[in-house]
C-alpha cells in the first residue's frame, strides 16, 4: 500500500491482509472501520471485490496497472503506486474537493490485494502501453 494513505488506513488494510492470510474470513469484522475511514466508498468497493471486478495487469518488464470494472460497466485504470484512478469521482471528490481519501475503484484495488482477490492478466509491453494510452484518448 502506498505511503500517500494516512497511517490509520494503511494499518487497517494490513490487518485485513493478515486476517485473510490466516483465516480467509470475510470483511465483516472490518466493515465498521472501513466505513469510518473510507466513508461512502467502503461498501461499493467491497461489492466490486465480491464481484471479482479487479484485474492486475502485468507486463513482462514488471510494469503493473489495475483495471476495475465499475458498477456502470465502464473499465477504469487504477495505479496503486501513485494512488490514482481515471474515474470522474476520483477527479472530483478526491482531487478537487478533497472530500474523500480515494474512490471506490482504488479502494477495491487495495482490498482485493489484501484479500488475495485480484484477477491476473499478463500482457505484452505494447498491450500495456495501449491500455495506458487509451485512457488519455478517452479524455482528449
Automatic annotation (TrEMBL):
Record-linked InterPro entries: Znf_SWIM
Zinc-finger found in the keyword field: yes
One cellular-component annotation, GO: Shu complex
Domain SWIM-type: 76-114
GO MF: zinc ion binding
GO process terms (BP): double-strand break repair via homologous recombination
Oxidoreductase is among the record's keywords: no
Keywords associated with the record: Metal-binding, Zinc, Zinc-finger
Name the UniProt record assigns to this protein: ZSWM7 protein
Protein encoded by which gene: Zswim7
Amino acid at each position: 500500500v502506498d505511503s500517500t494513505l494516512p497511517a490509520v488506513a494503511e494499518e487497517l488494510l494490513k490487518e485485513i491482509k493478515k486476517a485473510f492470510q490466516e483465516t480467509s474470513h470475510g470483511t465483516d469484522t472490518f466493515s465498521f472501520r472501513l466505513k469510518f475511514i473510507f466513508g461512502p466508498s467502503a461498501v461499493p468497493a467491497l461489492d466490486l471485490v465480491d464481484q471479482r471486478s479487479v484485474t492486475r495487469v502485468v507486463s513482462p518488464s514488471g510494469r503493473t496497472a489495475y483495471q476495475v470494472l465499475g458498477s456502470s460497466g465502464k473499465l477504469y485504470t487504477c495505479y496503486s503506486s501513485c494512488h490514482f484512478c481515471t474515474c470522474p469521482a476520483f477527479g472530483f471528490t478526491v482531487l478537487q474537493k478533497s472530500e474523500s481519501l480515494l474512490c471506490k475503484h482504488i479502494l477495491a484495488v487495495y482490498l482485493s490485494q489484501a484479500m488475495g482477490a485480484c484477477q491476473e492478466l499478463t500482457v505484452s509491453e505494447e498491450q500495456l502501453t495501449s491500455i495506458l494510452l487509451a485512457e488519455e484518448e478517452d479524455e482528449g
